[in-house]
Every structure is written in C-alpha cells, then in structure tokens.
TrEMBL record:
Its main location: membrane. GO terms for cellular component: ATP-binding cassette (ABC) transporter complex. It is found in: Membrane. Residues 6-185 form the ABC-2 type transporter transmembrane domain. The lineage of its organism: Bacteria, Bacillati, Actinomycetota, Actinomycetes, Micrococcales. This is ABC transporter permease. Pfam families: ABC2_membrane. One of its GO terms (molecular function) is ABC-type transporter activity. One of its GO terms (biological process) is response to antibiotic. It comes from the Bacteria. It is a multi-pass membrane protein. It comes from Xylanimonas allomyrinae. Keywords: Antibiotic resistance, Membrane, Transmembrane, Transmembrane helix.
Length: 253
C-alpha cells in the first residue's frame, strides 16, 4: 500500500462535501424515519430494543453506501485518465485495491458513527456496553466487503454508469440482507446466499445471537459459522474480480 497515494486520495474524497453529506446523512435520515417514529421502537428485540435493531440495519446500509460510492468513483477516475497515470507507477493492482478499501473504510466510520449517535439520542438500547462496541466495530470493518463490491463494479464497467449500477445493486442487496423489511419463507432462504445477508447477520449477532426476526411468526436461527463463511466467500469473489479488472484495464492501456 502506498502511503502517499492513500493520503492524497483520502484528502480528495473529504473535499467532496456533497458526497460526504449524502453518505452520512442518508442512513441517519432513514434511521429516524424507520426507527424513531414507530411506537414499537421501545419493545424488546434480543438483548436490546427494536430501535437498536433498526439502528444496526441503517448502520450496515450507511457503511455499505459509503464504501460502495467511494470505491465506485474509481470508474470516474479512469475516465479522467487517472488510471493511466497510476499504471505508470510501480504500485501493483492489489495495492491500488487495498488503498481504495482503506479510504472507503475511513469514510464509512463517519457514517456508522452518525447513525449510532442518532440511536443514542432517540432511545436505542442494548443490555450491555460491549454490544454497542462490538456492533460498531463489525459494521465498520465488515463494510470493506462493499468497498470490494464497488471496485469490482467500477473496474468491470469502466463508465459513468458504473456508479448507478453499483447503487442500484446495493439497494437490491440491502433488501435481501433483511435491512428494510424482515423476510420470510422462500425469499429468506434465497437471501441467505446473498452478500449483504452475512454481513448484516454478523453485525446483529451481538444483539440477536443469530436469531432471525420473522414477522410471519416463524422462528429460525443463523449459525455464526455460516455468517462468517458468507462474508469470506463473497469478499474473495469481489476481490478477485476487482484485481482481475484492474490488471485487464492496465494491459489495454
């Protein structure tokens, strides 16, 4: 990883005030709408209350939006000739991907923190302090998965439409990740094999211990091992596609 490129890229991202406000403000607004305006927010959910459950969902979505959008901007950089300049340096494709992931995680930390602050101010509750800490750390670091997703999309499409494709795909994945509405039946079984499901399940694990909230009344449980395998497998797939696409692009240049 190149420290100079990391510093310059991070400064450039932080100067994009409009994008920073969007990726931090959107999940906070969604949490306030879904988490603090319903009367059932104070009811018990696992080792906390419903507001904490909604807070974790919006933290997952916010971190994913932040990492996907930051990494997806790589497509715009390529159109502007930045990729060709980087191709003339000794930096390897893997180092480029790693640096982009670190920059995206830095912005994602702000998005997760903003949702947590909103949760604290509006009555989100967990039975122990370590649940707050564990949930924050998993939501933050786990979002690296979607930095790889954004890079894989950006490097594969290499056009301005890459950002739109990544954003649309993220909304679909968030639905299958149980972030917007609790899933049940066949859709829930299919969702277990999608990328957002494992990540969201890990973030909720300190609160629910693997229990799946099902509004249809059915009870199911996800093992910790299955959730970890889901995240590891999808991270390997996205990383492989991203590195392959970077190498393909440099050969063409």
């Amino acid at each position: 990883m190149n420290a100079t490129f990391l510093r310059i890229d991070l400064q450039r991202q932080l100067r994009d005030v409009a994008n920073i406000v969007f990726v931090i403000g959107l999940p906070v607004a969604m949490y306030i709408i879904f988490g603090s305006t319903f009367g059932a927010g104070g009811e018990t959910a696992g080792h906390g209350n419903v507001r904490f459950y909604v807070m974790t969902s919006m933290a997952v979505y916010g971190a994913s939006v932040a990492t996907t959008s930051i990494a997806g901007m790589a497509a715009i950089e390529l159109l502007q000739g930045w990729g060709r300049q980087l191709g003339l340096t000794p930096m390897s494709p893997a180092a480029y991907v790693g640096t982009k992931v670190v920059v995206a995680l830095t912005v994602a930390a702000g998005a997760v923190a903003a949702v947590f602050v909103a949760g604290m101010l509006t009555g989100a509750r967990a039975d122990a302090g370590w649940i707050w800490v564990a949930t924050f750390v998993i939501a933050w670091l786990g979002s690296a998965l979607f930095a790889l997703f954004g890079l894989a999309i950006a490097q594969t499409f290499r056009s301005e439409s890459a950002v739109s494709v990544a954003a649309a795909g993220l909304v679909l994945l968030a639905f299958f990740g149980n972030l917007f509405v609790p899933l049940s039946g066949t859709i829930l079984q299919v969702a277990r094999f999608t990328p957002m499901y494992g990540f969201a399940g890990l973030v909720r694990y300190p609160l629910l211990r693997g229990q799946v909230i099902d509004t249809s009344g059915g009870a199911s449980q996800d093992s910790l091992g299955w959730l970890i395998v889901n995240v590891v497998v999808w991270a390997a797939i996205f990383a492989t596609v991203a590195v392959w696409a970077v190498r393909r692009g440099r050969r063409r240049q």
